[in-house]
UniProtKB/TrEMBL annotation:
InterPro entries: K_chnl_dom
Gene3D superfamilies: 1.10.287.70
Source organism, top-level taxon: Bacteria
Keywords: Membrane, Transmembrane, Transmembrane helix
Transmembrane segments annotated in the record for this chain: 6-30, 42-70, 111-131
Organism: Congregibacter brevis
Name listed for the protein in its UniProt record: Ion channel
Domain Potassium channel span(s) in chain numbering: 64-132
Keyword Transmembrane helix: yes
Keyword NAD assigned: no
């Protein structure tokens, strides 16, 4: 059990480093395009937000891959694609249970699920921050013309 805790916490630390790197990259990507939001069309704003979303999603999928490598290294799965699938199920807390690890290593599943909840939460917070900011920057563009309720919510929050 102690070995699994050490392996799990060490893997979480590696995942946190990847998350911070890609979260920083996503926010820098957004910051460099922020001035374009003032007069951006709906599709222009969506393309910027999509870039942020894909960078954040790539970070989460990278973490799934790291856990899958650990599972395969430990001999839990003979095929990487099975290890990746199982890792994605754990990370997303979906928990199908159609594939399980051995009794010796199954504690790693809940540890990875905790990691997934935290990292997906970080991604969600970053994405919502950029979405809110994009709406604020677009007060005179598509948000003001096509989504007055969104504008009211932004104004109330200030």
């Amino acid at each position: 059990m102690f070995t699994n805790l050490v392996l799990g916490v060490a893997t979480m630390a590696v995942c946190l480093a990847l998350q911070i790197a890609l979260l920083t990259r996503a926010l820098l990507y957004y910051a460099h395009r922020q001035s374009a939001l003032d007069e951006a069309t709906f599709f222009g704003t969506m393309s910027i937000l999509s870039g942020v979303m894909f960078l954040l999603m790539f970070g989460n999928l990278g973490q799934v891959a790291i856990w899958a490598i650990l599972f395969q290294f430990l001999g839990e799965f003979s095929e990487y694609r099975t290890a990746f699938y199982h890792s994605a199920v754990n990370f997303s807390t979906l928990g199908y249970g159609d594939i399980v690890m051995s009794d010796k290593r199954k504690l790693l599943g809940p540890i990875q699920a905790i990691n997934g909840v935290l990292m997906v939460g970080m991604s969600t917070a970053a994405f919502m921050t950029t979405l809110r900011d994009a709406i604020k920057h677009n007060r005179h563009g598509w948000a003001a013309k096509h989504a007055p309720k969104i504008q009211e919510l932004v104004d109330e929050d200030q």
